[in-house]
Write a structure and sequence with these properties.
- Helices cover 35% and strands 16% of the residues.
- With 205 residues, the protein is an alpha/beta fold.
- The strands form two sheets. A seven-stranded mixed β-sheet has the order 5-2-1-6-7-9-8, with helices on both faces. Strands 3-4 form a two-stranded antiparallel sheet.
Length: 205
């Protein structure tokens, strides 16, 4: 049986810390994570890591995916990543979830994808500057899910991952709650629940 696929957008100056929790847990739980670049040339993240995309954004199709993850990057501000916002529109129109964090959120605002969905971001003024029409749908929260769109600010990678894992039903609710308490709050009492779930996952393959 083929593993489900999640797609991670990669581009120069990608903020390394933002998608890490999500992609690691997806991979640990049976997902194949494939990278999507503007083209097939290697990109360099903000932390200096070199990533070779598996496919290009032009090749990306919603029907081949369970999720599109859009991390932040300085290049969102220049407009050069607009093709990824266009891909997000196609995904949402096809009923496939999209998760955007940090600079990717204003990118989706410019595409008009936040006008009729609850959302969050680094701060309200960041989105207001895009001229979008969804200011009344802004929510002060660590991360927000509205239908198939997940948004988060740059300081909440754990909450971003939590919403992704919840939307795809990757972890049972009690395990997801413990996972978030462990990684976001350093709650040692949550560790046995997370460890037991990992052990069970290892037994079932």
């Amino acid at each position: 049986m083929a593993r489900p696929t999640a797609h991670l957008a990669v581009y120069d100056t990608l903020a390394d810390w933002e998608p890490g929790h999500a992609t690691a847990e997806l991979a640990r739980n049976g997902y194949r994570v494939r990278t999507v670049g503007p083209d097939i040339r290697p990109v360099t993240t903000l932390g200096g890591m070199r990533v070779v995309p598996d496919i290009t954004v032009a090749e990306l199709r919603p029907e081949d995916s369970s999720l599109l993850i859009l991390p932040g990057a300085d290049s969102w501000e220049t407009g050069e990543l607009a093709p990824f916002a266009g891909a997000a529109r196609r995904f949402l129109e096809s009923g496939v979830p999209v998760a955007a964090i940090c600079g990717a959120v204003p990118g989706l605002a410019r595409e008009g994808l936040l006008d009729d969905r609850d959302h969050t971001a680094a701060a309200p003024f960041v989105l207001t500057a895009t001229g979008y029409g969804g200011a009344d749908r802004y929510r002060e929260a660590d991360a927000v899910t509205d239908r198939d769109l997940i948004t988060a600010g740059p300081t909440d990678p754990e909450a971003f991952a939590r919403e992704i894992l919840r939307r795809l039903e990757v972890l049972p609710p009690d395990v997801l709650d413990a996972w978030f308490r462990l990684y976001a709050d350093s709650d040692a009492a949550a560790y046995p629940v997370v460890a037991a779930a990992a052990e069970a996952r290892g037994r079932t393959g």
